[in-house]
Amino acid sequence: MLLLIILFNSTIRIMAGQRVRTRFAPSPTGYLHVGGLRTALYNYLFAKKMKGDFIIRIEDTDQSRKVEGAQQNLIKTLEWAGIVADESPEHGGDYGPYVQSERLHIYNQYCQQLLEDKNAYYCFSTPEELEENRQLQIKQGLQPKYNRKWLPEEIGGSMPSSEIRKKMESGAPYVIRMKVPDYVSVWFEDIIRGPIEFDSSTIDDQVLMKSDGFPTYHFASVIDDHLMEFTHIIRGEEWLSSMPKHLLLYEFFGWEPPKVAHLPLLLNPDRSKLSKRQGDVAVEDYIRKGYSSEAIVNFVALLGWNEGEGSEKEVYSMEELIEKFSLERVGKAGAVFNIDKLNWLEKQYIKNRPAEKIIQVIKPLLLAELEKRTSLQQREVITSDDYLLQVIELMRERVGFEHEFVTFSSYFFFEPETFEEEGVKKRWNADTNDLLRDFVIELESLEEFSTELIETKLKEFVAPKGLKAAALIHPLRILTSGLSFGPSLYHMLEVLGKETVIRRILSGIEKIAVPV
RNA sequence: GGCCCCAUCGACUAGUGGUUAGGUCAUCACCCUUUCAAGGUGGUAGCACGGGUUCGAAUCCCGUUGGGGUCACCA
Hints:
Oligomer: single chain
CATH superfamily of the largest domain: HUPs
CATH architecture of the largest domain: 3-Layer(aba) Sandwich
Radius of gyration: 33 Å
Helix content: 40-55%
CATH class of the largest domain: Alpha Beta
């Protein structure tokens, strides 16, 4: 048995001070997966950390799976997250085209070379034949593998070249397969995982060119990764087992392979590979729900990476991530996508976000809502920056998403339509409505409708009656907001304004079912 | 099943031979409080198992178990 050790070492080139180039290479089959976002992010962070370039390449070699608009959507979503490519199909660059379907002539050229060097061969087996063969092997307890029926005689197979020529001339469809050498040990060093070794006898003669003339992923990505001069390939762990095929191709061409890092997978709560069925996997889903790019990026960055050195930091901006990121500190084990932590991060960002930025987001939402419903409050008032600012400061520690400033606290803009039943039952007694009517008179007498004066007035009103402030506080909250919970009552009343508060109390009383 | 990868609280993780195994989320209790949050304090909770190596292993080695990935003319 011949045992060859193929050693790959690309440190020389990197050490020579070559500019770092990384890539994210999605196929345009739909939305951006959160796992894809993390892969793109790590590529981006590493490139930027190293003062290098991050590139997007579109892998559309499967024409049947191509989805219209997916490419633009992918790039747009990445940019939403703050990941902007230095080179891409949309922005161009010196290594284009960046879409594989536009590079067919290149793959053909390199495939010819492989054919000439006897490192690849034509295969005329039909899909049916292959499937039949596969089933047979499974039945016999063997590993499903191509039976090398069309491997030419001159490279160790059993097919005479006359047969191959005859078949070719008949115009039969064919694919081109790589000839994987027998009993070769393929060894490489993964930046995250360390040394990994494969035996070539477990590797199938991979199809390089499909019968439709398009290359397979394996072939196209190796050619492009080389021609586009990437220094580091950072991708998901699911690609680990195809490394030997890729390395063999680099060897065939005499090319120096880039350094590689295989990222741990993102997992479902049951620890299987993150998938639909068990929750949202599209970044677009999270955008739609109202998550901010800061929170998503921060969260996804921490899934598999940490700063180390005893750091207890949890909240990172993109700039901080770039500064601190390193591939050496990426873990090896898969990470469960834990929505609770994401929600917590989102709250952290809302708590600290400048009000002006929040206003920019919620004002359009409010205006859209005003198209649908009418408000008894003055439109100019409740849509003013000044009013929104007050609402934000009262609510920012109570909402989970920005849109909740409008939905969760809609009573700042619209009349409450219902009054929380539980709250009414708990806070009302036979005298409550009379008490409220009397208190409205007190409120009317207030010249300045401020937090402090409202509070003083309420306490002065309640004390001589031998009542607690709570006897009025809770009913007031329910009448003015419809809810039994919310921000500080006095502050809330001030923001709402005297007129609105009094109107709501009086009209609310009529609707409340007072317990007997 | 073959090959490959992985293994610290429920989750994300720190830890690289000597720590009362630390932090964050979640959870529980208490405090604050008109409510709900936020905040504060404290608690529950973890080195999968078995062998080595060593004066000493979460840390190093081997094995077991468990989990995952991959075995397409898909990426």
